[in-house]
Amino acid sequence: MTAELDPRIRAADRNFIASAEKLIGLQPGSELRRIGAAVAFDTRLAARNFNGVAVLDPVAAEDLVTALEWIRDRDIRYSVWVRDDLLPSVEQTILGAGIERDVDGEPVMGIRPRDLVPEAPARVSVREVVDEATLEDHIQSTMASGFPEDLTRQIFTQRWLDDPELRMFTAYVDGAPAGNSLAIRSGDTSGVFSVGVPEEFRRRGIGSAVTWAAVRAGGEWGCDLVALQSSPMGFGVYRRMGFEVLTHYHIFR
User: Fold this and answer.
1) Which residues of 154-173 are buried (b: 16+ CB within 10 A; e: fewer)?
2) How do beta strands 51-55 and 79-83 pair?
3) Largest CB tally within 10 Å, which of 61, 135, 169, 250?
4) Residue 2 confidence (pLDDT)
5) Which H or E element spans position 75?
6) Which sign, positive or negative, has the C-alpha torsion 73, 75, 76, 77?
7) What is the reported pTM?
8) CA torsion, ordered 99, 101, 143, 118, to nearest 10 deg
9) Would you list the domain boundaries of the chain?
10) Residue 147 to residue 207: CA distance in whole angstroms
């Protein structure tokens, strides 16, 4: 008998799809399709992390093949995300389509939201993006953290300022943009995305500070869970903050 899936995992999965849905419509021709249990999305943004197929529920082989063919024919760089427990049933289909494994188990982590969070380090302040001026600061920090300028400006627009289920945060050191994060709400779950700190400001606790701001946003929304996908660089930081591993996503490119 198959063990029942932790409901926090399903909530994190839904939040991941919600983040993809936020990118749909930013560029002409973007589209999201549900093909059986597979979710395929093409944002028209030139980055693998923003396009692809998500396998977060048991999927029929023919539906997965159709989804993979659809994203391949869109002629854009893409990835395929597969939740850990579903990997054995779909791995050969993905590899058979000529798509190679890239990341073997990216942690999906969760924490209960909190309204009261640790104070930012000395000389660091974290502010929410509320207007065009603070949006430009957020853009500058995101670019300094490694995002290309054209891609950054395609994503961070007035549309996101007006979205009640999306909040952006920027850290400042002596008035200079020095870190960034955003929170996306999906029902009772909030996700932390786009955490970045420019190289010159790293190892000062700024990554934790902007992440805590996004966690607090989840609490203010009344969410039950704050979830994120962790890079190797951020994993230790998130564990020390109290995030626990819920599952893993295997990523193919």
Assistant:
1) bbbeeebbeeeebbbbbbbb
2) parallel
3) 169
4) 52
5) none
6) positive
7) 0.95
8) 140
9) 7-106, 124-223
10) 16
User: Using CB atoms within 10 A of its CB, is residue 98 exposed (0-12), middle (13-18) or buried (19+)?
Assistant: exposed
Instruction: Check pLDDT > 80 for residue 1.
Output: no
- pLDDT tens readout for residues 26-60: 999 999 999 999 999 999 999 999 999 999 999 99
What is the 3-state composition of the chain as percent helix, strand, coil, each rounded to the nearest 5?
Answer: 40, 30, 30
206-221 and 232-241 helices, crossing angle to 10°: 60
CB-based contacts of 230-236 (< 8 A; 24+ apart in sequence): 230/106, 230/107, 230/108, 230/109, 231/106, 234/195, 234/207, 235/107
- Quick check: 249 and 106 in contact, CB under 8 A? yes
Q: Is 66 exposed, middle or buried (0-12, 13-18, 19+ CB in 10 A)?
A: middle
Question: How far apart, in whole angstroms, are the C-alpha atoms of residue 244 and residue 215?
Answer: 14
The torsion defined by the Cα of 176, 198, 106 and 25, in degrees rounded to 10, comes to 60
Q: Which CATH superfamily is domain 124-223 in?
A: Gcn5-related N-acetyltransferase (GNAT) (3.40.630.30)
- pLDDT one-digit tens code per residue, 201-243: 999 999 999 999 999 999 999 999 999 999 998 999 999 999 9
Task: Report the chain's terminal Cα–Cα distance, integer Å.
Answer: 33
CA distances from 115 to 166, 215, 216 (A): 17, 8, 5
Question: How distant, in Å, are the alpha carbons of 135, 161, 234 from that of 130?
Answer: 7, 7, 26
Question: How many whole angstroms separate alpha carbon 43 and alpha carbon 26?
Answer: 7
Output the CA torsion sign for 8, 13, 16, 18. Answer: negative
pLDDT at 115: 81
Distance CA(38)–CA(210), nearest Å, equals 32
